[in-house]
Specification:
Layout lengths: L1 H36 L3 H34 L1
Helix pairs in contact: 1-2
Length: 75
Protein backbone atom coordinates (compact mmCIF):
# COMPACT_ATOMS: atom_id res chain seq x y z
CA UNK A 1 0.00 0.00 0.00
CA UNK A 2 2.80 2.39 0.88
CA UNK A 3 4.41 1.64 -2.46
CA UNK A 4 1.29 2.79 -4.33
CA UNK A 5 1.08 5.99 -2.31
CA UNK A 6 4.78 6.62 -2.90
CA UNK A 7 4.36 5.97 -6.62
CA UNK A 8 1.36 8.31 -6.96
CA UNK A 9 3.18 11.01 -5.00
CA UNK A 10 6.17 10.66 -7.32
CA UNK A 11 3.92 11.09 -10.38
CA UNK A 12 2.38 14.20 -8.83
CA UNK A 13 5.85 15.60 -8.15
CA UNK A 14 6.94 14.89 -11.73
CA UNK A 15 3.87 16.65 -13.10
CA UNK A 16 4.04 19.69 -10.82
CA UNK A 17 7.81 20.01 -11.24
CA UNK A 18 7.50 19.90 -15.02
CA UNK A 19 4.67 22.44 -15.10
CA UNK A 20 6.55 24.72 -12.70
CA UNK A 21 9.68 24.47 -14.86
CA UNK A 22 7.79 25.35 -18.04
CA UNK A 23 6.10 28.30 -16.34
CA UNK A 24 9.45 29.48 -14.95
CA UNK A 25 11.11 29.42 -18.37
CA UNK A 26 8.17 31.29 -19.90
CA UNK A 27 8.36 33.89 -17.12
CA UNK A 28 12.07 34.38 -17.76
CA UNK A 29 11.50 34.82 -21.50
CA UNK A 30 8.62 37.25 -21.03
CA UNK A 31 10.56 39.16 -18.38
CA UNK A 32 13.59 39.50 -20.66
CA UNK A 33 11.34 40.68 -23.50
CA UNK A 34 9.85 43.33 -21.20
CA UNK A 35 13.32 44.42 -20.07
CA UNK A 36 14.56 44.70 -23.66
CA UNK A 37 11.43 46.35 -25.03
CA UNK A 38 10.43 48.62 -22.16
CA UNK A 39 13.44 48.78 -19.87
CA UNK A 40 11.00 48.87 -16.98
CA UNK A 41 11.03 47.44 -13.45
CA UNK A 42 8.06 45.26 -14.38
CA UNK A 43 10.30 43.06 -16.54
CA UNK A 44 12.77 42.68 -13.69
CA UNK A 45 9.96 41.62 -11.35
CA UNK A 46 8.86 38.96 -13.85
CA UNK A 47 12.43 37.65 -14.17
CA UNK A 48 12.80 37.46 -10.38
CA UNK A 49 9.49 35.60 -10.13
CA UNK A 50 10.75 33.21 -12.83
CA UNK A 51 13.92 32.54 -10.84
CA UNK A 52 11.86 31.83 -7.72
CA UNK A 53 9.73 29.43 -9.77
CA UNK A 54 12.87 27.59 -10.89
CA UNK A 55 13.85 27.24 -7.25
CA UNK A 56 10.45 25.70 -6.42
CA UNK A 57 10.72 23.30 -9.37
CA UNK A 58 14.18 22.25 -8.21
CA UNK A 59 12.81 21.48 -4.74
CA UNK A 60 10.04 19.33 -6.23
CA UNK A 61 12.52 17.36 -8.33
CA UNK A 62 14.78 16.88 -5.28
CA UNK A 63 11.82 15.52 -3.31
CA UNK A 64 11.01 13.21 -6.23
CA UNK A 65 14.57 11.88 -6.27
CA UNK A 66 14.43 11.30 -2.51
CA UNK A 67 11.17 9.33 -2.83
CA UNK A 68 12.62 7.33 -5.72
CA UNK A 69 15.71 6.54 -3.67
CA UNK A 70 13.55 5.38 -0.75
CA UNK A 71 11.46 3.21 -3.07
CA UNK A 72 14.58 1.61 -4.54
CA UNK A 73 15.91 0.89 -1.05
CA UNK A 74 12.64 -0.84 -0.09
CA UNK A 75 12.96 -3.30 -2.98
Amino acid sequence: MSSNINRSKRWILIFTGTVTSVVAVLLLVVGLIFIIAEGDWFGLAIVIFGLISIWFAQREFKEYMQLKKEADEMR
